[in-house]
Design a protein that fits this description.
Elements lengths: L6 H15 L7 H19 L6 H20 L6 H32 L3
Helix pairs in contact: 1-2, 2-3, 3-4
Length: about 110
């Protein structure tokens, strides 16, 4: 919504801190997960700034980064096929929830002239 690079990372950090303070079961790992998601959004936005697919792609990839951090830090012994399902599911749901809903909310808010 702000179209400023770095906003995703800062928002991710704040989100992670709030989740940790509210007793997330992941503990301090939730900060790393949220910062990673924000970094991915900023990287995709910086790369595809003028393209209309960037909200969808950043939503999908940032959701996948969540799975990557979990795989590296907490679930290294889980079978590969299980992670394949998790990555695909995270990407599709990230496109739907982060991308599609995010674009619709942005359009609605911009029409309201706030």
């Amino acid at each position: 919504m702000t179209r400023k690079t770095g906003t995703g990372t800062i928002t991710g950090c704040l989100k992670g801190l709030v989740e940790m303070v509210l007793f997330s079961s992941l503990g301090s790992t939730v900060i790393m997960i949220s910062v990673m998601q924000g970094l991915v959004v900023d990287l995709v936005y910086g790369t595809l700034k003028g393209n209309s697919v960037w909200p969808y792609l950043s939503g999908g990839l940032s959701s996948m980064s969540n799975v990557a951090v979990l795989q590296l830090l907490l679930m290294s012994r889980t079978p590969s096929w299980f992670f394949a399902i998790m990555y695909v599911s995270a990407f599709i749901l990230g496109i739907l929830f982060s991308g599609l809903i995010g674009v619709r909310v942005t359009r609605t808010v911009s029409r309201m002239n706030l």
